[in-house]
Amino acid sequence: MMIRLNIFLTFTVLRIHAAVVDPVVTNVDPKHELLTEITG
Q1: What is the pLDDT of residues 4-37, one digit of tens each?
Q2: DSSP assigned state of 40
Q3: What is the rounded distance in angstroms from the CA atom of residue 17 to the CA atom of residue 24?
Q4: Which first-to-last residue range defines the signal peptide (predicted)?
Q5: Which of 13, 7, 35 is nearest to 21 (CA)?
Q6: Radius of gyration of the CA atoms of the chain, in A
């Protein structure tokens, strides 16, 4: 039970992470975005 729950939570976190990160990586150059964030 506990192991199954941990696996489910891990997959959920990975899915959320992918959903958040993938559009940023595909649409914007990450380094350019980071420089924009730093310089304001």
Answers
A1: 999 999 999 988 887 777 666 666 565 666 666 6
A2: -
A3: 11
A4: 1-18
A5: 13
A6: 15
Contact 33, 24 (CB under 8 A): yes
Cα 12 to Cα 33: distance, rounded to the nearest angstrom:
26
Q: Are 15 and 9 in contact (CB under 8 A)?
A: no
Q: How crowded is the C-beta side of 30, counted as CA atoms within 13 Å?
A: 6
Res 20: pLDDT: 76
Q: Which residue has the tokens 């730093």?
A: 38
Secondary structure (H, E, C), 12-26: HHHHHHHHHHHHHHH
- pTM of whole model > 0.70? no
> Is the pLDDT confidence value at 39 over 80?
no
